[in-house]
Amino acid sequence: MGFSRYQRTDVLDLGNQYGTSIGHEAIRTAINQGRLGFKTIILHEQERLDHVAGREYGDGTYWWLIAAASEIGWALQVPPGTLIKIPILKDALALVV
């Protein structure tokens, strides 16, 4: 089972909602500063980020790491031809744990 993007996120509204993920910003910053390694792929027709995460990491629940690294928000499905950054899993998780 994957590490939830909400694990270190503040709970708002009497425990019913989660705030913005701290991990998302940490991953984007590390990518932009060259402190987090990644590989780049081009998304194909009918691929979703959870499919890519499942193939790359063996766990589709890590799709949010790819979304954060690629600066595409929190969508599982993005248009084919989108350039996707796939961060090194253990290094990305070290930023958010």
Largest sheet: 2 strands, antiparallel
- Sheet/helix structural class: alpha+beta
- Average pLDDT reading: 83
Uncertain stretches of 5 or more adjacent residues:
12-19
Helix percent band: 25-40%
**Sequence of secondary-structure elements:** EEHEHHEH
Shape: globular
Count of separate DSSP helical elements: 4
SSE topology:
Layout: E1 11-12, E2 17-18, H1 22-32, E3 38-42, H2 49-57, H3 63-70, E4 83-87, H4 89-96
Antiparallel strand pairs: 1-2, 3-4
Explain the overall architecture.
- This protein is α+β, with helices and mostly antiparallel strands.
- It has one domain.
- The protein contains four helices and four strands, in the order E-E-H-E-H-H-E-H.
- The chain has helices spanning 22-32, 49-57, 63-70, 89-96, and strands at 11-12, 17-18, 38-42, 83-87.
- The strands form two sheets. The protein has a two-stranded antiparallel ribbon with strand order 1-2.
- Strand 1 (11-12) and strand 2 (17-18) form a beta hairpin.
- 28% of the residues are buried.
- Mean pLDDT is 83; it is low at 12-19.
